[in-house]
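haha ok so turns out i had the wrong file open the whole time. this is the CORRECT one, sorry everyone. sequence first:
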Amino acid sequence: MALRKAARRFGVSLCTVQRWVERAIGQRLDRVDWSDATHRPRRTTRVPRDVEDKVLAVRSRLRDESVLGHYGANAILETLRQLGVDPVPSRSTIVRIVRRRGALTTRRRIRRPPPPRGWYLSPVARGKAELDSFDFIESLKIRSGPRLDVLTGISLHGGLPAAFPVIRRTTTGVCNALVRHWRKHGLPDEAQFDNDTVFHGSHRYADTVGRVARFCLSLGIVVVFVAPHGHGPQNPVEGFNARWQAKVWRRFHWGSLAELRRGSGCHLAAVRQYRASRIEQAPARRPFPANWTFDVDAPLRGTIIFLRRLDDQGRATLFGHRFSVSAEWAQKLVRAEVRLDAQRIAFFGLSRRQPAQHPRLATVLSLPKTPHAARRRLRGAVFPLYLFGGLRVNPR
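then structure:
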């Protein structure tokens, strides 16, 4: 019987059959030793016991007497060479000796699994909603042309990219770019921005809602503003910014803005084709409404979410107001959900170690005195709305 046929018949590998045949050559089958052989190597090079003791003694002396305070494997190896120890164990051998003899004094770092995508937003983390993140690449200079910025965006689950080079950052330009992108690919459930004034609106006036946020709310999109100086939630779009600059901006010489836009469009089309299966498996995007028009004076409806880190007294700042949330959650991240229809703010605690648990910390009920008529235009881009005329905080 052929060896391969025998291996298939008994469900073993070919090398196993070859090893059995080699062991049975020249012997009767009933006299062959079919027991498994030991896996111990034929030769071992164990460090002598006295050398191990010397390594531990040198480590103890360095720990107590070293001026530099170094008593790791490199310091032990250098000291053994100065003492003329022969043979001198290698650095990895010294590490194994110290670990095997129980002389390590530091705890091993606990590697915890990363939280799921969008862990700070429950529907996004469960894969029930799609999130588009947007950011700006600033101050790119065409050699013989103008200085420009690039509005970039990427979806969290599908990895759907977007890039719009513009000469000047304006809220109108951002809204027009979002219309073109969402008309072509559909609306996400949530849109995420940083706290740049072009996205957020003015930080000088209390109770203000910026033009971009109003634009998203008019389309039924939940607006998310990340915590200042917090890079975790913006990592996907920041990573896309780096890839776009490496694959598009620095890879070729661009003579004009129009040429850059064409090259960027070709690259984005290739990326969308490459990620076609991932985009199809992402949460479904809503079609762009056919007869929609943007009315900046329309009453605000929907939800705005702020990610904020509490100060040392457990307070958060939103809309120019400071809210006492929870002293027990001081210096930690919270999610503030502003329900514009209900005139209510709910604060939820966030923790990367327990990404599925978002305890409610406090609820703020607003009593507006001037609900909608107190709005006035500022610089043509920011529209303040005095949402919170009177405030009271209900714990949890």
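The radius of gyration is 32 Å.
again sry for the mixup
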